[in-house]
Structures
1.
Amino acid sequence: MLTLYYSPRACSMASHVALEEAGAIFEAKKVDIFTGEQRKSDYLAINPRAKVPALRFDDGRVLTESTAILGWIGTAYPDRNMLGVDPVDQAQTIAMCAWLSGTVHPAFGQFVHPERLVADPSAHSALKAEAKATFWRYLQELDARLSGRPWIMGNQFTVADPYALVFYPWGRELGLPIKQLANLNVMKDRLIERPSARRALEREQSVLLSMLPDHLPAENIPHAGP
Ligand SMILES: N[C@@H](CCC(=O)N[C@@H](CS)C(=O)NCC(=O)O)C(=O)O
């Protein structure tokens, strides 16, 4: 059986949701990165880089990197159409995942771990300020993409949707005014309403399930939220 290694509050949420949406039969194994489980020998045998997500196949092979895992899910379950219709659409979905992984995620990392970039502590507050401003611009870009369309790639739900939502609560962790991201918030509610996606979010006890649509005036709130 497939095994997904994930941690709550981590980017592995995208792979977790995508596997449920694909209808895959898999085991979800929690590796809590906030208590250091990713650095224990058991998990290092799966991914020596000590990162989630990792996807282990029946034959023992392991796939890491969110973009690769999401791309594999989209290709392995083509009837779910989670990459897009034609090869260009599919490549554009992968391009979005690559941007989330290679550009958006590292901006957050620069805020949380400036010491990984520059050892000198006197540089850290400037690095953090720059990272926060950059991360905010990326969240705004994602929000703008959702203007007038339900999903990140247009009318079709793709693997890029749960991936984009990984970064929405991270914005709150950085103290950013995510209430302003009305389109992302509505997309989050749309995702939560999908039974398969919700199964993964509930298993993770995802923070997304407790984020109310509080950017809206009270009279416009369609439901109180979970
Ligand atoms: N490029 C990787 C990044 C994976 C990654 O950074 N995962 C984080 C969680 S979001 C992690 O496992 N961090 C544990 C650590 O750095 O100790 C991907 O896109 O999958």
2.
Amino acid sequence: MKSKAIRLKSVKEYYFSQKLREVAGLMKSGRDVINMGVGSPDLKPHPHVTNALSSAMKHPRANMYQSYQGLPELREAIVNFYKKFYKVTLDPNTEVLPLMGSKEGIMHLSMAYLNPGDQVLIPNPGYPTYASVTRLLEAETILYPLKLENNWQPDFNTLEALDTSKIKIMWLNYPHMPTGTDANEKIFDRLIKWAKKSEILLVNDNPYSFVLTKKPKSILSRPGAQQVAVELNSLSKSFNMAGWRVGMLSGKAEVLKEVLKVKSNIDSGMFFGIQQGAIAALKTKSNWFKELNLIYQKRKVLMMKLVNNIGASVDIESVGLFLWAKLPQGAPCAEEFIDEILYKKNIFITPGTVFGTQGEGYVRFSLCVSEATIKEAIKRMES
Ligand SMILES: Cc1ncc(COP(=O)(O)O)c(C=O)c1O
């Protein structure tokens, strides 16, 4: 065998891919580990979504290759969804592109825009894929710190001071994972103005806008956004469809056209049944989100008890699928802290450092576990 690609030196195996193997090993050895680490919704999709998938199997085109741009009905459903919930108008032919999960969109967009040596602004803490994809493409990551004292929002003095000549993309992710900070429209407006001046493509990664928020927000609803910004969105968390792999990229037609050049050379369309399920999901009435959030809210209240038990603290206003818990003074580093809980209490939580250096001193709890399981975790922590 000849040697592997040099670019692989810039990344490690994804944290969860590695750690969940260890957790699986512990479980195989007989330990009953409670997984509060990952944001994979345990609740079911709406029955009309699964019914749409089952009925689709009888369709004569069900097993055939599908369009690279997704079914026209799916693009239409995305347009209606953006209109209804975000008050954003999009053209179904040029301004929406269905994806197999938003994670793949991070790679496609980056492949469409980045050359080796280009720079990319990435939140710290933030979803690890922005940085690893940037490195895989031999571009340079410029981490912008998000800090508690700035309510986990970008600091404009830092942005203004940057040499932006080589920066092509700025990743945003509001509502923010892992901190649970909601989107702030005034900050979106400032970012849009700054990105326009600096000729930077803003990409808001928006999978959490329905989870525990008062109102879903999209950067595309802000004035001028459609000239400089695009948005990734996903059915994974909003519709309990993480394993179905359905996401979308919306906004500026010119950007989507370039992304399609990459994507259409990589995959051969999304399975027909999944597209039919996604169409049904996107048509779900808004009550769906209210009912889901009632469940998540109850879990959050219980989970806060667990957080208090370990001496950590959280912001009760936080949104999204996770609690971002600040460890008490004198606690060991986040990775040591979670390993101790994993090995002594059989509970897996995520160390904040997975999301960057600004995550030191924090751990992340997922709300994708039942109330009964949270109660069991509380009991374990008290024993
Ligand atoms: C911030 C963020 N972006 C993107 C994703 C990927 O979501 P999808 O399932 O749509 O690929 C996740 C998943 O956890 C996430 O937390």
